[in-house]
Amino acid sequence: MLNSIFIIFCLIAVSAFFSISEISLAASRKIKLKLLADEGSINAQRVLKMQENPGMFFTVVQIGLNAVAILGGIVGDAAFSPAFSALFSHYMSPELSEQLSFILSFSLVTGLFILFADLTPKRIGMIAPEAVALRIINPMRFCLFVFRPLVWLFNGMANNIFRLFKIPMVRKDDITSDDIYAVVEAGALAGVLRKQEHELIENVFELESRTVPSSMTSRESIIWFDLHEDEQSLKKKVAEHPHSKFLVCNEDIDHIIGYVDSKDLLNRVLANQSMALNSGVQIRNTLIVPDTLTLSEALESFKTAGEDFAVIMNEYALVVGIITLNDVMTT
């Protein structure tokens, strides 16, 4: 009986090894493993290679788990049934005693395997999957070598079933913006990212999804100069609306000439020169962008043109608003 009990505990240990190996490899994050591999970890490289083709790994795990479970049932019945039967034979008939002994020995062995060979190792594997995977990878490679013929047979049959039902055999690990959002959100909840950092990262991704009208100054709110406007009117607009740049148009806002910089106007005032736009004031060319542009594309346009101010037009060549580099960056 003692020998049988020892064998059962050995089988539980083997089953626990396969269980923790299975969950740790499945739960290991590729990003973390790649960082470890870049630092020179050979085992991390082996785990990554195993993840690329997990079929053979899971095949050897299932072979091990099922073989151990069958052996555990056989040995467990032989180990505990006689002891239970001898105990119950004093209180009931031999037939009933034998049946009850089988049920109790089955329940005991099953409970031991569930607790120590399944639940406990899998929870450990979930807590620190990468650390566990690095430790079990070499023993698992040895198991793959030992059971290679069986692994090849069962894995081949499984692959044929996958092909028959047109099920993909390789997991897609493409990282989407939703995945990054989830990681950022998790980092914020865990306290790794501060609130400001969290908002900044989210805003970066919003640059790809939001168009320029969402951050522009609308047409109705634009303060613009007419090319033939008198100096007093210009001074009044500058005093009441101290912007850094003003759009210059000819008669109406849809006929754009360019824009003037407030610093140029200030320099002319300090030099006792006229602010009238037809008196030599430098009118700069205006960057024009369509209203379908995303904020990310607008940022690239600013970078390419070397400007920080743009006019937004729709498909009818009508001005819908203006946007500055500061508008994009503070979105």
UniProtKB/TrEMBL annotation:
Q: Keyword rRNA processing on this protein?
A: no
Using the record's annotation, list all stretches that form the CNNM transmembrane domain. Answer: 1-197
Q: Which UniProt keywords apply?
A: CBS domain, Cell inner membrane, Cell membrane, Membrane, Repeat, Transmembrane, Transmembrane helix, Transport
- InterPro entries reported in the protein's UniProt record: CBS_dom (IPR000644), CBS_dom_sf (IPR046342), CNNM (IPR002550), Ion_transp-like_CBS (IPR044751)
The compartments listed are:
Cell inner membrane
Q: Which residues form the CBS domain?
A: 282-331
Could you tell me the membrane topology recorded for this protein? Multi-pass membrane protein
Keyword Kinase tagged:
no
Spell out the Pfam families in the cross-references.
CBS (PF00571), CNNM (PF01595)
- Spans through the membrane: 6-27, 56-80, 100-120
Per the record, its GO cellular-component terms are: plasma membrane
Q: Which family does it belong to?
A: Belongs to the UPF0053 family. PaeA subfamily.
Checking PANTHER family in the record gives: HEMOLYSIN-RELATED, POLYAMINE EXPORT PROTEIN
What is this protein's function?
Involved in cadaverine and putrescine tolerance in stationary phase. May facilitate the efflux of both cadaverine and putrescine from the cytoplasm, reducing potentially toxic levels under certain stress conditions.
Name of protein: Polyamine export protein
Organism for this UniProt entry: Salmonella thompson
Q: What is the lineage of its organism?
A: Bacteria, Pseudomonadati, Pseudomonadota, Gammaproteobacteria, Enterobacterales
